[in-house]
Amino acid sequence: MIGLNPVMCVSIIAAVWLPLASPPAGAETESERLNAFFQEVHEVSVARWLEWQTYLRLKTNYALWHSSR
What we know:
Blueprint: H1 6-21, H2 25-48, H3 50-55
């Protein structure tokens, strides 16, 4: 049986694990672009529906509500 130095084991694990743990640089920017797109679509959708704005407790467009009196 071969005895391994604990420091050597940690070095080997780090050498294998660290490249797998960090995502590639291009994937992060793609994810950020996708999140920005979804945020923009959400904001446009919320801006169209006064009821949805009220449900989300947004204090915008109160002047657009019509009273039934």
